[in-house]
Automatic annotation (TrEMBL):
Function: Scaffold protein for the de novo synthesis of iron-sulfur (Fe-S) clusters within mitochondria, which is required for maturation of both mitochondrial and cytoplasmic [2Fe-2S] and [4Fe-4S] proteins. First, a [2Fe-2S] cluster is transiently assembled on the scaffold protein ISCU (ISU1, ISU2 or ISU3). In a second step, the cluster is released from ISCU, transferred to a glutaredoxin, followed by the formation of mitochondrial [2Fe-2S] proteins, the synthesis of [4Fe-4S] clusters and their target-specific insertion into the recipient apoproteins.
A molecular function GO annotation: 2 iron, 2 sulfur cluster binding
Upper taxonomic lineage: Eukaryota, Viridiplantae, Chlorophyta, core chlorophytes, Trebouxiophyceae
Pfam families: NifU_N, WD40_RLD
Residue stretches of biased makeup (Basic and acidic residues): 417-430
Keywords per UniProt: 2Fe-2S, Iron, Iron-sulfur, Metal-binding, Mitochondrion, Repeat, Transit peptide
Ranges for domain NIF system FeS cluster assembly NifU N-terminal: 478-602
Similarity-based family: Belongs to the NifU family.
PROSITE patterns: RCC1_2, RCC1_3
Compartments where found: Mitochondrion matrix
Cofactor: [2Fe-2S] cluster
Keyword Metal-binding: yes
Name of the molecule in the record: Iron-sulfur cluster assembly protein
Species of provenance: Micractinium conductrix
Length: 615
């Protein structure tokens, strides 16, 4: 959650004025992230549009999220509306049918909703009474209700709001599959612990198989206070896909979770299991307690005293990452009031002197979500003004996976002149059945623990748990038969004694997506690889690549296998471009295994020479 996902704090006597909501980007909620082919009746909106269904309704807050294909709003009376993708019940309206227009969440009637946040397939809101309600997918306990549902069918989804086990709550932030609650200055978390994003010092992982690597991450269904910050007063929180940012009243900025691309700001690509102070934002760089913070798929932002914005992580598809907080010079001089992150896009409402602007930028998913107009840029590496809203008093901004939202002050001329979007129907019952929705990364090793389920997963192209590579698209077409073959029938799964001098071991990982591979070779006295085996935790493509690698290297001299390239394996498996990174582990693992074996041989020779000299 960013500043865009909470309404400005107000006393009970203070009237919330609210504003008019505008939306641009995708409207075909089923197709987002699956295909760029959109149905003609659900066009991409290239400029911000008013929503016909919200005519006469003053909106107090708007919330989405970098992994969300849905939106949450609350009006000035505390009535909660949701719309967008609903295959996991994340709209809380009692079914799994997508909604094209803002729909009142009946289960929150009379609750006076004041804030909210949206995850990949779940939602959470906060009421004026300090309670939090959540709905949607609960396979990791991300709803914070104390239970986990495996989502094997509609009966396993929370289709209506459920009371989360927290109290005195005033803010909430949803990551892809986890939730953070800010309650009376203390931070609580629940959900997926895989990268340490819950902040409790562990990823709750264990190997669930005896003869293979089958890593399982134990869900956390009961919200727990984050002990590392228990003595602090937390004032702001933001959640990215798999990482979290918190600001404390003393100005300390803390980050934890997935560390790829430097998004945690600690100068290393390393996961953090518990909150770690961002050293760069200390000393002469003062961060206010009410700093504007935002977390996206691979990037993080925070404002300092005076309004200057600092950024870190991966902000562009190409170029260097910011490994620690760096002044974002592209917005130098601007005073940032609201800031948000989409999957790889960004937006802010800012002022420069007396000038008001709504600024967007980033690498889009092809849905015109930057609002530059039909003849405008599709993507923008640098911040640029959304001219349709130039001069408008934008109160809040929010972004989802393929859409953007702008809350403009009521009565603003720019809002009144904006075109109006009215979809053909309220419920999108004509959308293809998406079944269980997007698939999780295969939790298995090369061992066939997923037999019987593999084809279904591969045919629907499982997206990685971290969604950090390949623009997070779920592939629209099935995998090649070679991938399916090696996934269903992995070759050479197993392990050798790594202390054996004839064995070389290569253990490599891909920080961007969490794939891990261990490849071992057994070499005879002539330098020929007589056997090989592997264990892999990762997606279907990574497992298939590992299986192929072990087949190709058997029977070859160790020096010959050094010529095997990732591109060869990818070509053999016919991997689509979005999954090419999954073949990268094999080449590195082969080289590491050969290097390990050679180092053992060299050590053996030196040991023999020393023994001979001693004799």
């Amino acid at each position: 959650m960013s500043d865009a996902e909470k309404k400005p704090e107000a006393t009970e006597e203070e009237e919330v004025v609210g504003g008019e909501l505008l939306q641009c980007g995708a409207t075909d909620w089923y197709s987002i992230g699956r295909t760029k082919e959109v149905r003609p009746e659900y066009p991409n909106l290239s400029v911000p549009h008013r929503l016909k269904a919200l005519e006469g309704i003053k909106v107090a807050f708007v919330a989405a999220g970098p992994s969300a294909c849905h939106t949450i709003i609350g009006d000035v009376n505390g009535v909660c509306y949701t719309w967008g993708r609903n295959e996991k019940g994340q709209l809380g309206v009692g079914d799994t049918i997508n909604r094209n227009v803002p729909t009142i969440v009946a289960g929150l009637a009379n609750k006076k909703v004041i804030a909210g946040s949206a995850g990949r397939a779940h939602s959470a809101v906060v009421t004026a009474a300090g309670d939090s309600y959540s709905f949607g997918l609960n396979n990791y306990g991300q709803l914070g209700t104390g239970s986990v549902k495996k989502a094997k069918g509609v009966e396993d989804m929370s289709l209506t709001p459920q009371l989360s086990l927290v109290s005195k709550c005033n803010k909430v932030a949803c990551g892809a599959d986890f939730t953070m609650w800010l309650c009376d200055g203390k931070l609580w978390s629940a959900g997926c612990p895989q990268y340490g994003q819950l902040g409790h010092g562990t990823d709750n992982s264990y190997n669930a198989a005896d003869s293979s690597v089958k890593m399982v991450f134990e869900p956390q269904a009961n919200p727990r206070i984050i002990a590392a910050l228990a003595e602090k007063k937390v004032t702001q929180v933001a959640a990215g896909y798999n990482h979290t940012i918190a600001v404390c009243s003393d100005g300390g900025v803390w980050t934890w979770g997935f560390g790829g691309y430097g998004r945690l700001g600690h100068k290393v690509q390393q996961d953090e299991m518990r909150p770690r102070l961002v050293e760069t934002l200390t000393g002469r760089i003062a961060v206010p307690a009410d700093a504007v913070v935002a977390a996206g798929q691979t990037a993080s932002f925070c404002t300092i005293v005076g309004g200057q914005i600092f950024a870190w992580g991966k902000l562009k598809p190409s170029g260097d990452n910011f490994m620690y907080p760096t002044p974002y010079h592209e917005l130098s001089g601007w005073n940032i009031h609201s800031l948000c992150c989409g999957s790889s896009t960004f937006a802010c409402a800012a002022t420069y002197g007396n000038e008001r602007s709504t600024i967007t930028w980033g690498h889009t998913n092809g849905y015109a979500e930057l609002g530059y107009g039909p003849a405008g840029k599709k993507s923008s590496a640098n911040p640029d003004k959304c001219m349709a809203l130039e001069g408008a008093h934008t109160l809040q901004v929010a972004m989802g996976f393929g859409h953007s939202l702008f809350l403009v002050k009521a009565g603003d001329p720019k809002a009144e002149k904006a075109p109006v979007w009215e979809p053909p129907c309220v419920k999108d019952e004509s959308a293809p059945n998406a079944g269980a929705g997007s698939k999780r990364k295969a939790p298995a090793s090369g061992a066939a623990s997923g037999k019987g389920k593999v084809k279904k997963n591969l045919a629907q192209a499982p997206r990685g748990a971290s969604l950090d590579v390949g623009a997070a698209f779920v592939l629209a077409r099935a995998y090649h038969k070679n991938v399916v073959d090696h996934y269903e029938n992995p070759r050479n799964v197993g392990s050798f004694d790594k202390k054996d001098p004839s064995v070389g071991t290569g253990l490599v990982g891909a920080p961007a997506c969490g794939d891990v591979m261990k490849l071992q070779i057994k070499v005879d006295e002539n330098g020929n690889i007589v056997d090989s085996c592997f264990k892999t935790f990762g997606c279907g493509s990574a497992i298939a690549s590992s299986s192929v690698a072990t087949e190709w290297i058997k029977g070859k001299p160790v020096d010959d296998v050094m010529t095997i390239k990732n591109s060869d394996i990818a070509k053999h498996l016919s991997l689509p471009p979005v999954k090419l990174h999954c073949s990268m582990l094999a080449e590195d693992a082969i080289k590491a295994a050969v290097k390990d074996w050679k180092s053992k041989q060299e050590a053996g020779k030196q040991g023999g020479a020393q023994q001979a000299a001693a004799a």
